[in-house]
Amino acid sequence: MSSSADPLAPLGALPGVADAVDSVRKSVDRIYGHRVMRRRSSEVSAEAALRGARASAALEGADWPLEELRRRTDFGGEGEPRTVGAALRTTAEAGQLLDVWGQSPLRVLARLHLVAAGGTGDDGAVGRPRLAGEPVSGPALGKEPPDADEVAARLDALARIVVDGSEAPALVLAAVVHGELATLRPFVSFNGPVARAAERIVLVGSGLDPKSICPAEVGQAELGRETYERALAGYASGTPEGMADWIGHCGKALELGVRETTAVCEALQRGAA
């Protein structure tokens, strides 16, 4: 794809974006070079997935301690258990959908929503974009979600970018996928977990984080829900400043996820985990 036909190409030139991309790349390279990764990468990946899911649920208001996730199995009930279950399921499912994403991202999003919903609620609204007049549950993000027609058009545009490919750095594409889904809120529920799982798919599929050991969700939660929602509002504004701030925010979150995994690797090395 030529840069002139690539709608994401201008984003790489926004102030601060190149520095964020470079900083993330160096951070990810360092954790992949950790000696623990040579023999115990599957353990690191599993722990990163669990911590990422815990953080994704926390951003939805279900801020459970990590040990509670390890202990509990009742993730089908209403309220916080259902929220935590959705985050766990979408995070796990993301790794199974890499081959489909590049050819049919809308199928992947439908599958992620189906998995998030866990067979609960109105089955007619699960696994498809919402229709006109259907309400949206979850964090309000300070504004009304776009109408169903705009959602359909922008989902199609996002799918074209994914299928056609982009020369934009992985961080930029991941930030756009996450930002579009989180602000469009295309489904009647669980849009946050779906958006963050889709970002995970982009980071893994792009080769930036092929073993899925860098949980950006952890960084988003550490930066705080208010900061997350404020950065998303910047993305939703569509201004160059808002877009640059959101991409930089996603870069910081990813680096904090790397820091979390570095601590996991150090604990495994000491035999403390």
Automatic annotation (TrEMBL):
Residues 123-147 are annotated as: Disordered. Residues 104-249 form the Fido domain. PROSITE patterns: FIDO. SUPFAM superfamilies: Fic-like. InterPro entries: Fido, Fido-like_dom_sf. This is Fic family protein.
